[in-house]
């Protein structure tokens, strides 16, 4: 291979974060250190997921370790890794995890100014099937004087400082965006142990005839949702029907939608009046990514997802997100039902 084809100016996540920090003269470096702890947790989780498949399939290391502890489920391992990384960063005051009923306050770091919300391993029920699972995260900066109580965390996604998600597939992917910034994709080079910028400035296509929803819930859908989905499947103006793509793992469905375009929906319905997905660590972080990539994200009341305020840390919401024009179709159809 000629040397001219080898990229010797690789942008790692570490370099990207350093360059980002340099753009903000007032930056203390705390956010950068927090992101380094984040990326370490992603590398560790990626490692365990790769090994877990091997362990489960081949029984390597047996069902318990030398001290007789039960083999932890991956969600617990992922959660433990994430909590340890956030705690040891010394930059996080409080953490919300899908795996933890209550908030986790790091009282040993009373001056830390960041709050992190996360789903350490979203979609973990799909793990045995080899489906991509991932971590979804959001970062808030606490108000001056806030001590990181639950009330400090009931914020709209518009106050997110950054958010993103990872996808632990053949090679781990990380998609991250800062408030008012672009969306950047990084691929984990397992040999280097570095996330490499592979998808700079990701833009969600404005339209795409792909819809991603669990049609197994259609019995429970409200009329506007039924009319909307039927308009894609049985087009009246002579267009071709949309393609259906549903993986059942939010990070995988979201990543495909970000890359190819289309729409992902988990509507609130008669069975789940508030929807299934959690506002703080699934809907809001994803909504920030899609808005920063030129897409849209709304809830089942057609409100901008980023403006929805959770009533409690595990509060849920319906969500439609993806290509700007595809989400607009949902809004237009719902308008017909407004009283
Ligand atoms: P359903 C996975 O359990 C999850 O939380 C998301 O990752 C995914 O989008 C959704 O639930 C799938 O839910 O009801 O279609 O299986």
Automatic annotation (TrEMBL):
Keywords in alphabetical order, please.
Answer: Carbohydrate metabolism, Hydrolase, Magnesium, Metal-binding
Q: Which GO terms describe its biological process?
A: fructose 1,6-bisphosphate metabolic process; fructose 6-phosphate metabolic process; fructose metabolic process; gluconeogenesis; sucrose biosynthetic process
Its EC number is 3.1.3.11
Give start and end of each Fructose-1-6-bisphosphatase class I N-terminal domain: 12-200
Question: Which Pfam families does the record match to this protein?
Answer: FBPase, FBPase_C
Q: Where is the Fructose-1-6-bisphosphatase class 1 C-terminal domain positioned along the sequence?
A: 205-334
Reaction catalysed by this enzyme? beta-D-fructose 1,6-bisphosphate + H2O = beta-D-fructose 6-phosphate + phosphate
Q: What does the record give as cofactor?
A: Mg(2+)
The record's listing under CDD domains reads:
FBPase
What GO molecular functions are on record for this protein? Answer: fructose 1,6-bisphosphate 1-phosphatase activity; metal ion binding
InterPro entries (UniProt xref): FBPase_C_dom, FBPase_class-1, FBPase_N, FBPtase, Fructose_bisphosphatase_AS
Q: Does the keyword rRNA-binding apply?
A: no
PANTHER family with a match to the protein in the record: FRUCTOSE-1,6-BISPHOSPHATASE-RELATED, FRUCTOSE-BISPHOSPHATASE
Q: Which family does it belong to?
A: Belongs to the FBPase class 1 family.
Quaternary data: Homotetramer.
List, alphabetically, the NCBIfam families matched.
PRK09293.1-1 (NF006778)
The name this protein carries in UniProt is Fructose-1,6-bisphosphatase
Q: Please tell me the species this chain comes from.
A: Tothia fuscella
């Amino acid at each position: 291979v000629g040397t001219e084809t080898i990229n010797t100016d690789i942008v790692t996540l570490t370099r990207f974060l350093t360059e980002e920090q340099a753009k903000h003269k007032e930056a203390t470096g705390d956010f950068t250190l927090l992101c380094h702890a984040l990326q370490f947790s992603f590398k560790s989780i990626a490692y365990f997921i790769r090994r877990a498949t091997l362990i489960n399939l081949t029984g390597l290391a047996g069902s318990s370790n030398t001290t007789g502890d039960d083999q932890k489920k991956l969600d617990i391992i992922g959660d433990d890794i994430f909590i340890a990384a956030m705690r040891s960063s010394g930059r996080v005051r409080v953490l919300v995890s899908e795996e933890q009923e209550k908030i986790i306050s790091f009282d040993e770091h009373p001056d830390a100014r960041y709050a992190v919300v996360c789903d350490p391993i979203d979609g973990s029920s799909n793990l045995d099937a080899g489906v991509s699972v991932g971590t979804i995260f959001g970062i808030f900066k606490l108000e001056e004087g806030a001590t990181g109580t639950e009330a400090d965390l009931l914020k709209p996604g518009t106050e997110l400082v950054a958010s993103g998600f990872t996808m632990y597939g053949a090679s781990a992917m990380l998609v991250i965006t800062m408030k008012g910034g672009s969306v950047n994709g990084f691929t984990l080079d397992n040999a280097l142990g570095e996330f490499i910028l592979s998808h700079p400035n990701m833009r969600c296509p404005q339209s795409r005839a792909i819809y991603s929803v669990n049609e197994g819930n259609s019995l429970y859908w409200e009329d506007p949702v039924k009319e909307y989905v039927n308009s894609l499947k049985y087009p009246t103006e002579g267009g071709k029907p949309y393609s259906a793509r549903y993986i059942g793992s939010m990070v995988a469905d979201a990543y495909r939608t970000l890359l190819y375009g289309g729409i992902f929906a988990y509507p609130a319905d008669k069975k789940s009046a508030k929807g299934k997905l959690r506002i703080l660590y699934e809907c809001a972080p994803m909504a920030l990514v899609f808005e920063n990539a030129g897409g849209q994200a709304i809830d089942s009341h057609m409100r901008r997802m980023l403006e929805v305020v959770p009533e409690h840390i595990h509060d849920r919401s319906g969500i439609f997100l993806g290509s700007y024009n595809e989400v607009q179709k949902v809004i237009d159809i719902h308008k017909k039902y407004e009283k």
